[in-house]
TrEMBL record:
It comes from the Bacteria. GO terms for biological process: cysteine biosynthetic process via cystathionine; transsulfuration. The lineage of its organism: Bacteria, Pseudomonadati, Balneolota, Balneolia, Balneolales. The modification N6-(pyridoxal phosphate)lysine is found at residue 196. It holds the Pfam family Cys_Met_Meta_PP. Its cofactor is pyridoxal 5'-phosphate. This is Cystathionine gamma-synthase.
Length: 374
């Protein structure tokens, strides 16, 4: 079956004894056991597993083309589980343009537990190769990166990882499996913040790890999910599965509006650089064309002004909401430097824009209004 069809029907055959077209939310935290005591595939306790999580994990795994998925309470919990599946003393290579909350989790939490990390320019596989040490275990990718939308060649880096016996993991939050499927390009693991495009309505937190193979590594990740306990509620799993039914169609809108507004901004006299991999002048455009099926709804752009003028632009819109996060049906944007705070290398005139599903002409008028403060 094709992606759109799997998105609508996937996962529903798990624990759906009543054959409901829309499955119920199982609020129960406990399940009655067999007289003979707990049997292998029996549900026991909702932290360990529950019907809504099984449905959501089966759906997500199917859309990424993975053997299985583990759902978490947030994207950062999913990323933490991948790193906790390694051993103290192991070394991980990360892109230097990594989601800032993830970077803080690594330096503020994982490094204290003796996980070593390097942050390198991931637009170049040679830079990654040079960063490999004897104790390196994993190469992390995030492409397009956040917030600069730099592109990593997923197939080339996965090939490098495999040749050196390393695990490859891609944070696929921004493109979603509609626009990019890293497991097909050779990655071992995909991580998601399902808070973003899977959820799509800015109302549910969630995270995922999806594995190409059910192996020992994935077993460890599931162990951390169940015993670490950063699990989504049955209600959250239900919400995320419900929203995912429309993912393919929402992404088509995000892709179309993203491309249209990136071109509009690139022509605008008050805008300098526009970072969008769909633009032919973007340094990663050729690689993005090879590995992406659409370029998404995220645009970062630099206005011709300083940080305080940029804050005025962000405040000058009537429709586009001033908020962090992304992937909602509503457009939002932020002055990224002030969100990232101290230590950020993001330019002070950069606006990170999550293009929503409003009519693009309304968005263009709003951009015109906001940029007129310059
Ligand atoms: C938001 C985000 C995360 C973190 O996910 P949460 O659901 O907020 O914990 C990780 N990676 C990327 C690329 C993100 O955009």
């Amino acid at each position: 079956m094709r992606f759109e069809t799997r998105a609508i029907h996937g996962g529903l055959d798990h624990d759906n004894h009543a054959r409901a077209i829309v499955p119920p939310v199982y609020h129960s935290t406990v399940y009655e056991l067999s007289e003979a005591g707990k049997q292998d595939d029996e549900l026991l306790y909702s932290r360990l597993d529950n019907p809504n999580r099984r449905q959501w994990e089966a759906l997500a795994a199917s859309l990424e083309g993975g053997a299985g998925a583990a759902a978490f309470a947030s994207g950062i919990a999913a990323a933490t589980a991948v790193l906790q599946a390694l051993d103290p003393g192991d070394h991980v290579i990360f892109p230097d343009d990594l989601y800032s909350g993830h970077r803080m989790m690594i330096t503020g939490l994982m490094n204290r537990w003796n996980l070593h990390s390097s942050f390198v320019d991931a637009t170049n596989a040679n830079t990654i190769r040079e960063a490999i040490r004897p104790e390196t275990r994993l190469i992390w990718m995030e492409t397009p990166s956040n917030p600069m939308l730099r592109i990593t060649d997923i197939a080339a880096v996965c090939e490098l990882a495999r040749s050196r016996g390393l695990i490859s993991c891609v944070d696929n939050t921004w493109p979603s499996p509609v626009n990019q499927r890293p497991l097909e390009l050779g990655a071992d693991l995909v991580m998601h913040s399902s808070t973003k495009y899977f959820g799509g309505h800015s109302d549910t937190l969630g995270g995922l790890v999806i594995a190409r193979e059910e192996n020992e590594l994935m077993e460890r990740i599931r162990f951390i999910q169940r015993l670490g306990g950063a699990v989504p509620s049955p209600q959250d799993c239900w919400m995320l599965a419900r929203s995912t039914r429309t993912l393919a169609y929402r992404m088509r809108g995000h892709n179309a509006h993203g491309a249209e507004l990136a071109a509009f901004l690139a022509r605008h006299p008050k805008v300098g650089a526009v970072h969008y991999p769909g633009l032919s002048g973007h340094p990663g455009h050729e690689t993005a064309r090879r590995q992406m099926h659409g370029f998404g709804g995220m645009i970062s752009f630099e206005v011709k002004g300083d940080a305080s003028q940029t804050l005025k632009v962000v405040a000058g819109a009537a429709l586009i909401r001033r908020a962090t996060s992304l992937g909602g049906v509503e457009s939002s944007w932020e002055h990224r430097l002030s969100t990232e705070g101290e230590g950020s290398k993001t330019p002070g005139n950069l606006i990170r824009f999550s293009v929503g599903l409003e009519h693009p002409d309304d968005l263009k008028e709003d951009l015109e209004r906001a940029l007129s403060v310059l």
